[in-house]
TrEMBL record:
Protein name: Extracellular solute-binding protein
Organism: Eisenbergiella massiliensis
SUPFAM superfamilies in the record: Periplasmic binding protein-like II (SSF53850)
Species lineage: Bacteria, Bacillati, Bacillota, Clostridia, Lachnospirales
Ranges for region Disordered: 37-63
Highest taxon of the lineage: Bacteria
Keyword vocabulary terms for this entry: Signal
Alphabetized InterPro entries for the sequence: Bact_solute-bd_prot1 (IPR050490)
Length: 603
């Protein structure tokens, strides 16, 4: 949420100031002048009688240890729960669409159970089932101990954490003793803490930390649009389009090609797995938005330089008209609004999609990953210089803990392990080749002669790709989206493989993952713009905001779909905007403006 040259929101800065004050207290600026161990929360879990014992002269180490259960090992992570003791945690996690393994047999799950001595009862969901399961979980207040990757928002932290008290205030448990890795990250990254802090000053989630070097983290935008060079050659197109008009014309030229000549029954010029096509088009209209599927979400307008609600602007009618054109000319798929990742990737694999809108080409076409270029963010009359939202170096967390868990300290200690050097690597990559930690389940990773990380189980052909290996052999959750420190993962994996002085690796264009990062890096430079920081509503605003948003969002989604597929005439767009006013869109906008009143925007 660092905005270069801009002024941060007043509420965010208040939280940052609070962090600084907390840090002063932790560093021992209290009346006693002595060194103290404290949590980052407003309240310490130390009981009154333990505090009294400390005041009467107990050693600092003894006082700290009495805060925590006797079965918890505070000296190391191996094990987290002392030998001879038994703790079972319930975990809900969302997995990737290619997941086909029994997650209970994945290596990292076995490692947690065998080496960290924590039993896991795991329930897994996927992209088509997670929303229903999440809503049921929150409505019934029947939460597992740990919730991973369930797409919870900042307002969810307010509604179910601060107000509903269903989520554990994790900041109350972040301390040098219990969670040394998280403590260090939070105290050294004030804005990362602010992004994950609710209005009551507590953290109900913890930030994901991204690596930052060419091709990673904030050197990339969030656009993921890739153009098949085979189709470009067949259509006589020599370079990626730079304007929105050129991009649309390219789609038309792809559609005009003979499908048989491309080895398919029908050509679908642009297909997306999860709104990547919408994001590309929205950016061309000047909107930098975090939730591309919700046009009632506050966005930054790069031309007017203000926070806007896209569906309320006049140019939203132009956006809807464009979608209608794409749909009627069959430049996008008939299931534009409903197609899922599995169906989209099946079309990619057939070679029927010239413009592939997915996280990376190799996820569906590993054998042709290097036959794509990344689309350049498109300019238009609504956006003079094409833009893409800059990927932040930290983000709102993807993990929560139930407030009713019997084992809050164990949960926090386990999550802290994911931010350690070893845990950051093990959660996604597994262990190094030859390590006793392999437990005979995986072969591990090593470095090739060029110093690149290779996975033995992929090299042997047991798994089709690194991604397949991570998902179906190692992970507890989708590692790229889960809690952890990506920078540590990149450096410490090299150290485990024998490199004495690790450095961030250079991109290897023969590696599928590095290749997509390289082409995105090249396409996105000069177009990166920070998005809005997370939106935390004050308690008195939240109810009205939710009431308005529920009605407006449902209406916008329904009517937009009608306009696009031709069930409602585009001549009625003026009526659409009038209907929004009758629903309270102006009040809704004012609430959002109040939240961002002191936000001056990116440079």
């Amino acid at each position: 949420m660092t905005i270069q040259g801009g002024t941060e929101m007043k509420r965010v800065w208040k939280r940052v100031i609070a962090v600084g004050m907390a840090a002063m207290l932790v560093c021992g600026c209290g009346a006693g002048g002595g060194e103290q161990t404290a949590s980052l929360g407003e309240q310490s879990p130390v009981k009154a009688e333990q505090a009294k014992e400390t005041a009467e002269g107990s050693s600092e180490e003894a006082a700290v240890d009495t805060q925590y259960p006797e079965y918890l090992n505070l000296d190391s992570f191996r094990p987290i729960v002392k030998d001879g003791e038994e703790v079972t945690l319930r975990v809900l996690t969302m997995r990737e669409s290619i997941a086909n393994s029994d997650i209970n047999e994945n290596w990292f799950v076995k490692f947690i159970e065998e080496k960290l001595n924590i039993n896991l009862e795991i329930e897994e969901v996927n992209e088509s089932t997670y929303e229903e399961r999440r809503n049921l979980m929150l409505a019934s207040n029947d939460l597992p101990d740990i919730i991973l990757n369930m797409h919870l928002s900042a307002n969810d932290m307010v509604n179910y954490g601060m107000d509903g008290q269903q989520f554990l205030p994790m900041s109350d448990y972040i301390s040098e003793k219990l969670t040394p890795n998280l403590y260090k990250i939070i105290t050294e990254n004030e804005m990362a803490k602010a992004e994950n802090t609710a209005p009551d000053g507590k953290m109900y989630t913890i930030p994901n930390i991204s690596a930052s070097f060419p091709g990673w983290g904030d050197t990339l935008g969030t656009q993921r649009v890739f153009i098949d060079k085979r189709y470009m050659e067949a259509a006589g197109i020599e370079k990626a389009p730079e304007t929105l008009d050129e991009f649309i014309e390219m789609l038309r030229e792809f559609k005009a090609l003979d499908p048989a000549s491309m080895g398919v029954d029908e050509i679908w010029p642009m297909v997306s797995t999860w709104g990547n096509d919408k994001e590309f088009l929205q950016n061309a209209f000047g909107w930098v938005i975090s939730d591309v599927g919700d046009m009632t979400t506050p966005a930054w307008d790069v031309e007017t330089k203000e926070m806007v609600i896209p569906c309320s602007q006049e140019k939203y009618g132009d956006y809807v008209t464009l979608l209608n054109t794409l749909y009627s000319e069959r430049l996008i798929h008939p299931d534009f609004f409903t197609i899922d990742k599995t169906a989209a990737r099946a079309l990619y694999a057939e070679g029927a999609v010239p413009v592939l809108c997915d996280a990376a080409p190799y996820l569906s076409i590993p054998e042709r990953f290097d036959e794509f270029i990344a689309a350049t963010p498109a300019s238009s009359k609504w956006c003079v210089n094409g833009v893409t939202r800059k990927t932040p170096s930290y983000s709102l967390g993807t993990v929560c803990i139930s407030a009713d868990t019997e084992y809050p300290e164990v949960c926090m200690r386990l999550l802290d392990y994911l931010y350690s050097d070893e845990g950051s690597v093990y959660r996604l990559y597994g262990c190094a080749e030859g390590s006793e930690d392999s437990m005979g389940i995986i072969e591990g990773f090593s470095l090739d002669e060029d110093g690149k990380l290779i996975f033995a189980d992929v090299a042997s052909g047991k798994y089709e790709s690194d991604f397949d290996y991570w998902v179906n052999a190692v992970e507890l959750s989708a590692g790229g989206n889960g809690p952890g420190d990506e920078g540590k993962m990149k450096l410490y994996s090299q150290k485990l493989a024998g490199v004495e002085k690790p450095e961030y690796p250079k991109l290897d264009l023969t590696n599928p993952d590095d290749h997509y990062r390289s082409i995105c890096y090249e396409a996105h430079q000069g177009h990166l713009v920070d998005g809005l920081p997370s939106m935390y509503l004050e308690a008195e605003q939240a109810a009205r905001y939710t009431d308005l948003k529920t009605v407006i969002k449902n209406y916008v989604n329904t009517e937009t779909a009608k306009f696009v597929v031709g069930q409602r005439s585009l001549d009625e767009l003026s009526d659409f905007f009038d209907e929004l006013k009758n629903m309270g869109i102006e009040e809704y906008i004012e609430i959002c403006k109040d939240v961002y009143a002191d936000y001056a925007g990116p440079q």
